[in-house]
Amino acid sequence: MSGIYFHIPFCKQKCSYCDFYSTKDSNGIDELVRSEIEELILRRDYLNHDLVETIYFGGGTPSLLNIYHISNLLKCVRENYNVSSDCEITFETNPDDLTEDYLKGLFDCQINRLSIGIQSFNDDVLKYLGRRHDSRNLNCNIETAKSVGFDNISVDLIFGIPGMELETYYDSLNKVIHLDIQHISAYSLTIAEGTLFYKLRKENKLKEIDEDDLLIQFNSTIDILAEHGFNHYEISNYAKEGYKSRHNCSYWEDVNYLGIGPSSHSYNGFSRQWNISNTHKYCSLVGKNEPIFEVETLTRKDKFNEYIITGLRTSKGVSVKFVKENFEREIVQHFVKGVLSLLKQELIHPYDDRVVLTRRGILISDFILQQLYFI
């Protein structure tokens, strides 16, 4: 199995926390789509004709594409790749782009999963985050999507926002639950370099969130969503039975995928490639059939570290047996030593032949990964 990811880098405005590659100049959408179609054709052998089980439109803001763009991209995939009959096709969208006509167009293109960036039901929080929508029509947007025929809908929420009252977050969480959707991604706000929030923090203009409040919000998210039938299957992701994000699971389960578009990444089991993060240069190079990506060949050490990074993000954790059977003695000894230390600190716990992050471990997962990395 394999997957295809489309990066659509255009945004009407940059959110205060976002560090993904994007541009506010959307005049080149037509040229980008033509270039992504060319890249699809040029790289059609990359997945070795494996069955494509998932397709994902991310950004940026994919919902700035018109239906003609989306239809042409998917037509090219189906003409050049071996696409599964039950392929999961996810489309990220901003709530204010969800008109009934647009939703009908997506549905007609055989998009079968929506990922909607709500983030909060509080207008003050939305303004603080730099979002361009407000809370007025969020319920209506979801109901319209359902009426069109969408029955696999995911919503994004953000917690851990400096200055946000606990009750404000709980209100948003409860409103999302009552939307009767299938999947929720709840992310702790991270302040990444290159974002507006990072700049404000450097200038001492951004108050840090209290760690106790962050822990309360995280634990409450797990407990409240579990009460309503959502399984916590990855650090930031919760799904009702049968509705995990198949595309995102492929990243965590060592499945090959092809990334199309500027700044997108690809993986074939032996190496990683990443496209240049410049839309104009990307389109120019694709048109000349010149290289658009850099390549990193993965060593055995890299493969081990990748397995630890991706495995520990999920509720499955990592298999001690797999590590012992697939990696060299020096790596195994390092792994076992780290695992024993983390077990004593109650940052991981055993599960069959596997080890899984505890709730406390999830909140300091970066520290745990540093302990297990083989350098």
Shape: globular
- Give the number of domains: 2
What amount of the residues lies in strands? 15-25%
What is the third-level CATH name, the topology of the largest domain? TIM Barrel
> Biggest sheet: strands side by side, in what order?
7-8-6-5-4-3-2-1-9
Question: In sequence order, what are the helices and strands, one letter per element?
Answer: EHEHEHEHHEHEHHEEHEEEHEHEHHEEHH
CATH superfamily label of the largest domain: Aldolase class I
Segments where pLDDT lies below 50 for 5+ residues?
none
Structural class: alpha/beta
The number of helical elements comes to: 15
Give the % helix.
Answer: 40-55%
What's the Cα radius of gyration?
A: 21 Å
Taking the alpha carbons of the first and last residues, their distance comes to 31 Å
Q: Indicate the mean pLDDT.
A: 90
User: Main sheet?
Assistant: 9 strands, mixed
Q: What is the correct CATH architecture of the largest domain? A: Alpha-Beta Barrel
